[in-house]
Amino acid sequence: MTTTQPLKFEAPDHGEETARADLYGLLATLFYAPPPQALLDTIASAEAQGDSALEQAWAELVAACKTSRADAVREEYEMLFIGVGKPDVMLYGSFYLSGFLMEKPLAALRTDLANLGLRRDDKVNESEDHIAALCEVMRYLIASDDAIHANLATQRQFFAAHMQPWVLDMCSAISGHPQARFHAAVANLAKSFFEVEMQAFDMA
């Protein structure tokens, strides 16, 4: 995604919000393309502890990265999300909301993105309802210091309209695929994180 103005990110002392933005950014990266070995190694070296569902899901991803090689992860990604013809698992919101790609949900999303001053980079092949693009929008809405558009109310509204109705179904489709190994761990982390986000937005 690109914006009509430069992105400005929050300072490190905004701990919880920075962590949220970083996790959205990581999920965007992992869902957009197969990760390089350097990223797998970086995640593998991360701290993993805690008893919450989200912390356990993070520990599962760290463990998966420790035993994964980039070439095998790439093969799995292509098998799950690209394939020949229709992918085994779709990463597009329109598919889950309407049963088809490039349908009314995508048009509504584009309208809301335009109202936020956001648009798809011409170099990006995926449509705006790809889960990676939506995670990147959420990262922006959390990290930007644009008080008009990047605030909790906007985050909640965007998430509720364009992610909440379908992201858990997508995560279940990935984790339930018999050949998903590394990406099952990614999906479980995403599911746990999205559930925390839903609960937090409900309480806000």
Automatic annotation (TrEMBL):
Alphabetized UniProt keyword annotations: Chaperone
Superkingdom to which the source organism belongs: Bacteria
PANTHER family registered for this protein in UniProt: CHAPERONE PROTEIN YCDY, DIMETHYL SULFOXIDE REDUCTASE CHAPERONE-RELATED
Official protein name in the record: Molecular chaperone
